[in-house]
Amino acid sequence: MTQIRPFRPGDEPALADICLRTADAGADATGVFDDDEIWAEVFVLPYVAQHPELALVVETDDGRVAGYVVCATNTRSFEDWFATSWWPQFSGRWPRPMKETTRQDGTLIYAYSRRGGAEPYGDDYPAHLHIDLMPELQGQGWGRKLVEALCAELRSREVSGLHLVASADNLGALAFYERLGFTPLASHAGVQAFGMHLH
Fold it and tell me: Could you give the CA distance from residue 117 to residue 188 in angstroms, rounded to a whole number?
């Protein structure tokens, strides 16, 4: 039967595939960038490298991983780790663009600019998450179950708040987060941030 379980080493290729196939405002982003692997190296794999204990996956009844939630409990320290320890390994493969002319450029510039304090949301909501589900799992309550399980774990660690940032074009996701009790926050153009206090 389909179930939620903790992340295990070896799940990374499945998580990378899910990330890619849901990265275009919830749709398949295959071919949007020159190199499809950028998505996962920015948005999911660093989380399971640094905080595997905070990653949960949805495993289908035939043993496939088809959804996940990943998290960092302290956004400021995670972003500093991303900048100093994770992202430098890719500088030769994906040099920093001089300017943003494509969507890939924009994502790479974002990756190079990540650092503790670069985003304001972590001050009031110190943890942040990324969640993705393949279409076959959507609308069945798995997203809610993943977030509720993560929030329970964060409360047990006495984390005071949680935030996330979604594409402003992903209307289904925006409605989903509000249904879960997240509050919309002031955001940059093109994205919508949400926060939730966990007290």
Answer: 15
